[in-house]
Specification:
alpha+beta, four-stranded antiparallel β-sheet, about 20% helix, two-stranded antiparallel sheet
């Protein structure tokens, strides 16, 4: 099993959720996050003072899937989240040793 974490633009969230459900994803965890990468933010003026806002709103989507589902999932996220501009996001893939469904105590992929 693998945990796939995608950090994308907030305006892509609904389209991404729909695409993931069409691919058979049964569940996901979504966070509203802030961060900076190559964009490094922008400048605004607050009460006459220049302020650098370098934390940009993003959405973090986490999924745990079978090993063979990782590449199609990455392709799906890239297809949906791609705009061609700086700030499209990143995808991280982590190994998962175990998963336990609390209600039934199922383990492994059956618990996902």
């Amino acid at each position: 099993m693998k945990k796939v974490t995608a950090i994308v633009r907030p305006e892509k969230l609904e389209e991404l959720k729909e695409a993931l459900f069409e691919k058979g994803v049964r569940g996901m965890t979504i966070y509203e996050v802030q961060g900076c990468g190559t964009q490094h933010g922008w400048k605004e003026y607050v009460r006459g003072n220049e302020v650098l806002l370098n934390m940009i709103p993003k959405v973090k989507v986490e999924l745990v899937v079978a090993d063979d589902a990782v590449e199609p999932l990455i392709d799906c996220v890239c297809d949906v989240a791609h705009t061609g501009e700086v700030g499209d996001g990143k995808i991280f893939v982590y190994p998962i040793d175990e998963c336990v469904r609390i209600r039934t105590r199922e383990r492994g992929e059956a618990a996902v």
